[in-house]
Amino acid sequence: MDSLNNIKILDFTQAMAGPIATMVLSDLGADVIKVEPLNGEQSRHWAPPYINSESAYYLSLNRNKSDICMDLKSSWSIEIIKKLAKNSDIIIENFRPGVAKKLNIDYETLKKYNDKIIYCSISGFGQTGPDKDKPAYDLIALARSGLMGITGEKNGEPVKFGVPITDITSGLFAAISILSALYYREKTGRGQYIDLSMLDVNVFLLVNQFMNYIATGKNPEREGSKHPSIVPYQVFKAMDDYIAIAVGTDKLWSLLCSAINRKDLINNEKFDNNENRLKNRDELINIINNELSKIDVADLINTLNDYGVPCSKVNRISDVVEDKQINFRDMIRDFNGLKLLNSPIKMSETPGKIRKLPSKLGEDTYDILKNLGYTDQEIKAFKDNGTVK
Questions:
Q1: What is the pLDDT of residues 225-255, one digit of tens each?
Q2: Cα(365)–Cα(367) distance, integer angstroms
Q3: Buried b (16+ CB within 10 A) or exposed e, 311-343
Q4: What pLDDT digit, counting tens, does each position of 297-344 carry?
Q5: DSSP code of residue 371
Q6: What is the DSSP string of 141-200?
Q7: Could you give the dihedral angle defined by the CA atoms of residues 237, 238, 243 and 245, in that order, rounded to the nearest 10 degrees?
């Protein structure tokens, strides 16, 4: 049995943050019905690349879900939504604040049909505040939160992450909130409303950098791969490729010095503890760069591993696909002919797992309506009048 077996989710989300949340929950066994507009949700159109005519972006986010394609503005659709809401434990949407209310699918409306519903709204700036109605994507929340301001090279421009980190973390916090609400409902019998702001999540992610500002009154600088409080803890250029090295303790510092044949640095008063290494960062990094530039990255990794120094080549995705540890952990799964990233949730009784490939647009519409009790004649009428596709 899956941990969320028999939990039913009505999913009005699109793009990234919402679909990440519902995918995580569906990996844990929740039954997710994804509601898409007639022309499909945004990520179906974020292409190329395509795989078998489907957007790779969409395929990355929507496994384990059933799909119904519906015109939410149709007067007929609200009757379908009412039935779906009555049968659901969770409803999740990521419209701009106010849109769900206009469509009559907001929390106050749908809880009339199911007073135990857990309803999660994900938005850029939240459902309250002076900027609640402003549009936002990952990039905007990343910039406004301060995260982008501390990301990039010291003398370069601010940069975004290589993946939509705002959307991903917001989706994960939404899933955490929903699981907490399910536990609360289990104890009290009461559902609740969840207001999840992407900006809030990104501000939370400032963590140590925020406290550094509180401690000093100074804005943290962009430092590329360098750590603001630990040295050496960054990416270096070896003779032929890049390598990440993390020296989090003075013991590891001694081991690194031994590994690169620079034991003379261990007790040097400029570098003998982390505080001194931080004060003399530039000088130390130049010394290490000089030593590492003489060594092939594969040989360097072997040596550092022998000494127990945390390190890794900076992999490209092609390297990740071939990585022995990643493959041993079954993180890349070939499922019905399509390679997918597997769930990282590994539990002894109820691990996350892939059960179904992402649906074609509207693929499950007939079955969903049939399960709600509609006759073939009624389903045909919905199709003929443009309510469903």
A1: 999 999 999 999 999 999 999 999 999 999 9
A2: 6
A3: bbbeeeeeeeeeeeebeeeebeeeeeeeebebb
A4: 999 999 999 999 999 999 999 999 999 999 999 999 999 999 999 999
A5: H
A6: HHHHHSTGGG-S-TTS-----SS-HHHHHHHHHHHHHHHHHHHHHHHHS--EEEEEEHHH
A7: -90
Residues 347 and 242 in one domain: no
- Catalytic positions are 167
Beta bridge partners of 339: 334
Close Cβ partners of 384 (under 8 Å, ≥ 6 residues apart)? none
CATH code, domain carrying 103: 3.40.50.10540
Does any domain span residue 215? no
**Which among 284, 314, 344 is the end of a domain?**
314
For residue 1, pLDDT beyond 90: no
> Within this chain, do residues 19 and 159 fall inside the same structural domain, yes or no?
yes
d(CA 300, CA 35): 51
Tokens of 88: 């659901």
Cis peptide before 232 (omega within 30 of 0): yes
Same domain, residue pair 136 and 280: no
- Looking at the structure, tell me whether residues 200 and 144 fall in a common domain: yes
Q: Which residues pair with 50 in a beta bridge?
A: 55
Q: How far apart are the first and last CA of the chain?
A: 33
136-168 per-position pLDDT tens digit: 999 999 999 999 999 999 999 999 999 999 999
Centroid of chain to Cα 41: 18
